[in-house]
Amino acid sequence: MLGRVAMAIGDAGGDIGAVDLVESTRELFGPLETEGFAFDVELLLRAQAAGYRIIEVAVNWADQEGSKVGVLTTGPGMLVQVVKARRRLGCR
Question: How far apart are CA 42 and CA 88, in angstroms?
Answer without folding.
Answer: 10
